[in-house]
Write a structure and sequence with these properties.
By secondary structure, the chain is mainly α. The chain has six helices and three strands, in the order ααβααββαα.
Length: 162
């Protein structure tokens, strides 16, 4: 890896840390993001300085959320990884895998509980708690609208970039 490639990978680490991930996750994401070929778990371990066990555990935790594909090549026992290179698709996948889960849980499980709680509220403390619950539910509704807007905007941008 030449100096410019190394600097770009380091900048990628800095960017991914901005998402609140740990050092190893940021390093893996940056390497995969800028790697043109499938990369083996062994190479990830070598390039990050972490053990194969650490890489394996981390990959199980991050691959679905970050658009990483796990690949096993015919005739090889090695595991390889590839990351989605289209930022718009990767961003959409992150929203889908992360935020939509929260929205679905909130919509399908919390909303009915709030409706039941409304009927049981009797103390000032319960009214305050109800206000927090209802505020959260309103935020979820607003967040759903924002996500729909983002999805539509991403699709427009993808059509425009073709």
């Amino acid at each position: 890896m030449n100096d410019i490639e190394s600097q770009i990978t380091d900048i990628g680490i800095e960017i991914f840390k901005g998402y609140g991930v740990d050092d190893l996750t940021a390093a893996i994401l940056s390497i995969l993001n800028f790697e043109p070929y499938d990369i083996s778990m062994e190479e990830l371990a070598e390039r990050t300085g972490y053990s194969l066990a650490s890489i394996s555990l981390k990959m199980k935790n991050i691959e679905n959320f970050w658009g990483i594909k796990r690949i096993q090549k015919p005739g090889s026992r090695k595991i390889y990884f590839r990351m989605e290179k289209n930022l718009l698709d990767a961003f959409t996948l992150q929203i889908k895998n992360g935020y939509e889960a929260e929205l679905n849980i909130a919509r399908n499980k919390i909303a009915p509980l709030i409706n039941r709680y409304i009927k049981e509220v009797s103390t000032e403390e319960e009214r305050k708690r109800l206000a927090i619950f209802e505020n959260y539910q309103q935020q979820i509704t607003s967040f759903e609208e924002l996500i729909k807007f983002i999805y539509n905007k991403v699709e427009q941008m993808k059509k425009h970039n073709k």
